[in-house]
Design a protein that fits this description.
The chain is of the alpha/beta class. It is 42% helix and 13% strand. An eight-stranded mixed β-sheet has the order 1-2-4-3-5-8-6-7, sandwiched between helices. It is globular and about 60 Å long. The chain binds zinc ion (ZN).
Length: 398
């Protein structure tokens, strides 16, 4: 049997098989959350496969503190998270010894199984699920209107028609514009402009998606009521292809720079990862996710929560953006494009989010596990540092 890391372009079923196989081998109980549409009908994937999120718990079920690991909120970023989850299950005994009596590990695998199946960031509703937890769901194009720069970029970010020739034109225009602006400004602009409209790359949605509601249910069912700490790491690979030799991954937080939450995040993860907030650092413009807000809302009042998004790959933003819009354009009108063209667009997504590079794939689990190890030792050794950590008010949308 082929090792998962050697499958060039793993499909949704292969990520589910990897996780479920590892859980079975570890004799870990798995709870299944099938993905449905709003009417409750189960959704099927691209190859007509069953779609579900799976949750398992390692360690003492009654532990005071919880470390939550969530994967594939952006479906196309899921395979690395699947490798991590399987590795944790394969090393169950060792992991549980490390966790001790006071910490349990909750792993929620493939939060966005539709996105995993179609190898896209989006949910079946066309929503970026990592932007969907905001309390406000903006209508209209008010955010696009904020920036004339964005309006000029939009036709190249969201082309209505694609061919090999027009691709060259759009990529060239994006590249040319990137020469006149810093990548931070471009990312900021993209983030603002893309949230408001369906079909755009960061579309927030008009209401909570099925994925959003399922995640909240998972948190509600799994959360402990007694006081304790919930640490959360949401695994992504959305920042391009390079797993650098320097500090990686990147740990992104939604907390304001200088806040006690941000300082604690820096203290916990700063020795093994670069840490940045939405407001400072060179990656700020990407406007990291909002899944933390599901935890703010659903965890009982006595719980202390500190969440972060963990990103693998810290270059090639433009590669990532162009791969996403190309794939999205094809998915919007599948009949218009040949199977060859559709396959090509999907493979280019993999090349960004789960590159066919054995060195990259070999480094994924160790890089992520270093961050997890820091979370666990933080819970063991620095518990007093968590006092005063609060759940911030919902950040403003712009
Ligand atoms: Zn992501």
């Amino acid at each position: 049997m082929k090792r998962f890391s050697q499958i060039p372009y793993p499909a949704a079923r292969e990520t589910a098989d990897l996780f479920l196989g590892a859980a079975e081998g570890a004799r870990a109980r798995v709870d299944e959350y099938p993905l449905t549409d709003a009417a409750g009908t189960p959704l099927r994937g691209r190859n007509d496969e069953f779609l579900a999120t799976h949750v398992t718990v390692l360690g003492n079920a009654d532990a005071r503190d919880t470390l939550w690991i969530t994967t594939a909120l952006h479906g196309c970023e899921g395979p690395a998270g699947s490798m991590l989850a399987a590795w944790l299950l394969n090393h169950r005994e060792q992991i549980e010894r490390t966790l001790g009596r006071d910490i349990r590990l909750v792993i929620a695998h493939n939060l966005n199984p539709w996105g995993v199946s179609h190898f896209t960031r989006f949910t079946a509703e066309g929503v970026d699920p990592n932007r969907n937890f905001r309390r406000r769901f903006p209508g209209s194009d008010r955010y696009c209107a904020l920036s004339p720069d964005y309006r000029r970029l939009d036709p190249h970010l969201n082309p209505q028609e694609l061919s090999l020739l027009t691709e060259v034109w759009h990529v060239g225009m994006m590249w040319a514009k990137s020469k006149f602006m810093t990548s931070k400004r471009i990312m900021r602009m993209i983030a603002l402009g893309q949230r408001a409209d369906k079909g755009k790359l960061l579309y927030v949605g008009r209401e909570p998606t099925q994925t959003n509601q399922m995640i909240r249910e998972i948190i509600r069912q799994r959360a402990h009521a007694a006081p304790g700490i919930d640490l959360h790491l949401d695994i992504h690979t959305g920042l391009g292809t390079r797993l650098t030799k320097t500090k990686e991954p990147l740990v992104l937080t939604i907390y304001p720079p200088g806040s006690s939450e941000q300082r604690l995040t820096q203290k916990l993860y700063g020795s093994v990862a670069e840490v940045a907030t939405t407001k400072d650092g060179k990656w700020s413009g990407s406007d990291v996710g909002t899944i933390e807000q599901a935890f703010f809302a659903e965890l009982p009042a006595g719980r202390t929560y500190l969440g972060a998004c963990v990103e693998l790959g810290t270059v090639s933003i433009m590669d990532a953006v162009t791969a996403v819009w190309r794939h999205q354009t094809v998915m919007r009108r599948p009949k218009r494009y040949s199977a060859w063209y559709a396959d090509r667009s999907r493979r280019q997504m993999y090349n960004v989010f789960f590159p066919r590079n054995s060195a990259w794939r070999a480094e994924v689990v160790p890089a992520l596990y270093r961050v997890i190890g820091q979370a666990v030792s933080g819970l063991h050794d620095r518990r007093s540092a968590f006092s005063g950590v609060g759940r911030p008010a919902y950040p403003r949308i712009s």
